[in-house]
Amino acid sequence: MLRSRPRLSRFAVCTASLVLASSALAVGLSTHWSYEGASGPGTWGSLNKSYRSCALGKAQSPIAISDASAIKADLPPIEFHYQSSPLKIIDNGHTIQINYEPGSFITVGQRQYALVQFHFHRPSEEQVDGRHYAMAAHLVHQDAKGRLAVVAVLLTAGRANRLIGLLWNNLPKAEETETVANLKIDLSDLLPTNRAYYTYQGSLTTPPCSEGVSWYVLREPVSVSTDQIARFAARYSMNARPLQPRNGRPIRATE
User: Which residues are designated catalytic?
Assistant: First the structure.
């Protein structure tokens, strides 16, 4: 049985910072950061003392992934138990984020993580075999002890995706205001058929860049249309953190 979890604030930053209860978080909400210029990624660590991990952390995300060097192992599958949810969508000033109704979760081995929200980056923050994909969706989960697990779905230009179409047709007109549409969505519609993955230990990819996040990067990309990519780019042409040093961390992959 899943324990109840706190709802994310409508002003949440895009990588689930609000699920981390800390005084630093409250300060972080009023600290401006961006993806370029004086408040861009190179300065995040100095913008606020609670962001120091962005500069000093040794297990930061995203990182470059090489299939040839990934350790192939008999890893447990990610079991997705997603239900439909009312569409609650927000433009939080950094990305388009969808807050998910309680009841959906994943299991990885003996751990169960509740689905909290998902959001998008352009291009993909993850690099696989030297390639950044057109976009990526980050599916953010939290277990009963507060540990985070993020599933990354790589998005590539091709056929239109039904779920993305529904989301983009209901984009909020104003920032930082959650819009509740009179329809339901199912995040399963954004998952590839093949659920093989890469995994490593990393961090949030936005301030405060907190570490201890389990990353699962699905190896098979999902197609979205060029028009769907362009509609997101009209709001966020680039919202991806640069690659971070691997610092010897192992990257494992399902066989």
Answer: 94
